[in-house]
Amino acid sequence: MMRNGIAGVDHVIIGVRDLERARMGWTRLGFTLTPRGRHLGQGTANYCIMFARNYLELLGFVTRDDYAHRLEAFLARREGAMSVAFAPAGSAENAAAALAALGLHPSEPRALGRQLELPEGTVVPRFSLLTLPPEETPALDCFLCSHLTPELVRRPEWLAHPNGVTGLRSVHVLVEETASLLPAYDRLFGMHEVTTTDAVASVRAGPYRLLFSTPDDFATMHPGIHLDPDFPLPGIVALELAIARRDTTADYLTQWQIVYDEMPGGSLVIPAEEANGTVLFLTEA
Fold first, then answer.
1. How far apart are CA 231 and CA 42, in angstroms?
2. Full-model pTM
3. What are the structural domains, with CATH classification, of the chain?
4. Bridge partners for 119 per DSSP
5. Separation between Cα atoms, residue 258 and residue 250, nearest integer Å
6. pLDDT score of 151
7. How far apart are the C-alpha atoms of 136 and 12, rounded to whole Å?
8. pLDDT at 40 over 90
């Protein structure tokens, strides 16, 4: 277990302006989506793309909401990956104690429920959420999410995806510069988990990587990927997903006439405009 009480990445939230349209778009991309979940006491709902150890959450409004200011402000600027939810190694309370022991300032755990509309009736998965002040995770909108009812959100039929994707590997974040981020991430994850090159600052969170780079460095590392010149910094620009077999995934994308590129290193890349504003790197595990 890591000394900060964080085991890795639990899920990434992708903010979308039209939830039903996003559901159709990601289904076409070859993902299996859960039934719709509705957050209790809020105007937001989601569809989730579940993998064995992590997932993607498509989040949008179904009615007007006086409380979801962060999502509203984000969607006023763009669609796309907006937040990373870390998985605590144990309970949220244990993670809070571990973070406080590092001199950090975690919030009190906050309860969240959502109604999940299953064929046999509605169930209510429950979660415990924990946040850190923004200056303790600079350039990254994030929180910790503890699952209190994990059996409700991971059904075997939701884990198989026609495109062959098996899970999340890394999160790419665009920033103005990387040097000022290092002290905070050294403190949160430990210096041995933070490495830098000229082009990128890499933070290991369990088996996952958070990769921070400037737009110019990202473009140099990934030639041919079109970036919006007005992309608001800082922000999550891309997700790397693991695939079982590259040929199978390429066949699926070709069959469904989904635009993709092949990178020199062998990854397949789905451009941002195909995936609600987020570049998807598909890499054979």
1. 28
2. 0.96
3. 6-158 (3.10.180.10), 165-284 (3.10.180.10)
4. none
5. 10
6. 87
7. 19
8. no
pLDDT given at position 1: 47
In this predicted structure, the answer to whether residue 285 has a pLDDT above a threshold of 70 is yes
**pLDDT for residue 67 is more than 80:** no
Q: Which residue has the tokens 């790397």?
A: 240
Tokens of residue 63, six digits: 């009615």
Three-state DSSP string of the chain: CCCCCEEEEEEEEEECCCHHHHHHHHHHCCCCCCCCEEECCCCEEEEEEECCCCEEEEEEECCCCCCCHHHHHHHHHCCEEEEEEEEECCCHHHHHHHHHHCCCCCCCCEEEEEEEEECCEEECCEEEEECCCHHHCCCCCEEEEEECCHHHCCCHHHCCCCCCEEEEEEEEEECCCCHHHHHHHHHHHCHHHEEECCCCEEEEECCEEEEEECHHHHHHHCCCCCCCCCCCCCEEEEEEEEECCHHHHHHHHHHCCCCCEECCCCCEEECHHHCCCCEEEEEEC
pLDDT, tens only, 245-257: 999 999 999 999 9
